[in-house]
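The methods section describes the discrete structure representation at length, but only in general terms. What matters is that the chain and its backbone geometry are given together, residue for residue. For illustration, here is how one protein appears when written out as sequence plus structure tokens:
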Amino acid sequence: MSGVIVSMRRTLLSCTSLARNGLVGGALAALLPAAPAKAADLIDSLSLVMDLNRQELAVLATALALLGFSVMAAILLMRTRVRTAKNEARLRARIGELQLQADRFGALLFAEPQILISWPAGDNRAQISGDIALVLPRDASPQRVLAFGTWLPPEPALQMDHAVDALRERGDGFQLTLTTAHGHMLEAIGRAIGGQAIVRIRELSGLRRDLAETNLRYKALSDETEMLRGFAAAAPWPIWAKGENGALTYANPAYVRATEATSAIDAQERKLELLDSDDRNAMERGLKDAANFTSRLPIVVGGERRIYDVRAVNVGSGSVGVAIDASEADALSSALVRMAEAHRRTLDQLSSGVAVFDGQRRLAFYNDSYRRLWDLDRNFLDAHPDDSSVLDQLRAARKLPEQPDFRAWKAKLHEAYRAVETAKDTWFLPDGRALSVVTTPNPEGGVTYLFDDVTESLDLARRFDGLIRVQRETLDSLAEGVAVFGSNGKAQLFNPAFVRMWKLSSDAMRDEPHIQTVEGWCHQLFDDPVVWRQIREAITAIENRADVPLKLERKDGSVLDGMIRPLPDGATMLTFQDITDTENVERALRERNEALEAADQMKVDFVHHVSYELRSPLTTIIGFAHFLSDPSTGPLTPKQAEYLDYVTKSTNALLALTNNILDLATIDAGAMKLELGQVDVSKAIELAAEGIQDRLATDRIRLKVEIAPDVGSFVGDEKRVVQVLYNLLANAVGFSPQDSTVGISARRTERSVVFTVTDSGPGIPADMKDKVFNWFESRSQGSRHRGAGLGLSLVRSFVELHGGKVRVDSIVGRGTVVICDFPTDQAAHRDAAE
């Protein structure tokens, strides 16, 4: 330290001279803390400084600062050199130790033959060291070691490539046991160490090789066991293993589920069995006798009885078994058997003869129609003869078509066994029959023969052709136009009348034009788009096909009556008939009928009008006649009294006629209403009889009344019922001869009261029975007076208004019977009418 102080002094003196020249500033403050000195030396330095003037002091401070920086730099440099020297010595010692240790490790590492391959991080160049002769000849290039395919079989070489790539890319370590192409066993270990990928390859020999082989076998066995356990666990079939004593030693999950156990251990502890006791005993006997057991057994799983294929074999001192669900297969097998049996029954019901020959050309199946068709013996067919034998027997019985070269014909027939398509032929037998023969090659080999007796079909075809010709001639002779259009809308058939009727060309129609084309040709005569659309839709419709009547009034004034008629084969027939003349006559008749109806209506209106107009003066006349006949008006001469009596009778008859006309008019207008109430049958007959007493006395006619005791009463309009009976009795009296009898009777049936009026008059001719109830229909034959012909009309109208019926039974010369039925339940009649 004293040396440093001396040098500082020297430096301080030199700095003083520099300060005087203005080169140094105030660096003294920086020097003082950086360089420790003894107190005396510092005091001397400070005394020297105090002698300087102010300008020199600044120069001196600068010099001192530079001096302090230099001193410190020197000190730091010295310390760094000392430290570096010490570190270098230690490093050299450590390198020596590491070199020694590396030499020991290298000697230890290469004490046995092996190869080391390393890849530095980020470098694709490999460093290879060791005994390359392990895999290659000694004079081979080291880089050939990386070509694994040169000294390894393809599969291990590929495995080695993948492992090395994974090690270099992701640092995945590996350990492989490899066998070279020369049969050497090697161990390859890959690790990522210190940023490098290192692969070590060494030979396995001796105990190590045996251990590696054992490990390989153990690993393979372990992998196989694990694979089998995984398969058994994933299998949907129950799988189990039993020991020598028959106890359950393994059960897969399917077995656990089938036995409804909670786990395999639970199944072992509870000794749960999949099969029942009889099936287990049968399986144990089969394993004991034949070392294996196979059977299809029913097993109840989950409360459902299913069919399983159970297979068990002895393995070692125990046995293993599996139960494969065969329910579906069993069901399909049963269904197949049933289907085959159903097919056999169906084929037996066919009228066509069926014979199936197998691949060996022997008869495998035949139906009864085949046997009856050829009249063959059942025992012969059940013996499964070959195809040639059957043909030879048929030829011997002269049942086959006559052939000039039977051998060639049979050989051609047997080509069906090598064919791939169905062949058809027709055989004309010596007995006059014609057979349709279809030979079909079977997919599994063999041929199926199908025989159909088409004798009748051919005969029908000939008849059909003749019938078609007759029908065509008939159509051509018809005056009615006929055209048939197919389901595609094209014309298939037409007759000359159709062509003439629509002024078409026969050649154009033979080209089968579409209905739209025909429509265009016919527009010149008829162009109604609605009707043509209806025709088009009827021809091309698929559903709701029905007859559609047509009536066409064409531009030329003609009228056609047409019909669209669907045919069973999907076609549609159009027929047109010219009804122009008929239409004209019908139109004339219609106009005449309308005129007659108008005249009849005018007659009815006239009658109504006249009836109402006559009633008022008649009422006046009747009133004055009654007034004049009253004694209070004064006495009348006999002649006046006679004339007044004539006036009274005539006006009463005229009033009755007028009332009848008004009643009929009211009924005809639908304005007549019945005043319903209880009608006493006996009283009604009595009232009606009172009205004809004078006529009975005048004509000396007896009235015979017969009323059943149980007739009672019924619901009706009493006034109208009396009017009906009065008209019937008046009509009977008018047509009965003098000194005769008119009868009236009443009886009750289940639903009506029946009135019967009989007379012994001349009767009604058959041609007049339907007219007696018409208005103003009067017959003078056999009657002593002529009426207006309204009585029976009123009778029918009033009876029908009650819901009843009137009928007349009459024989000419023997009288007439009129029967009226009045229903007893008017409520039912009103409901029916509503």
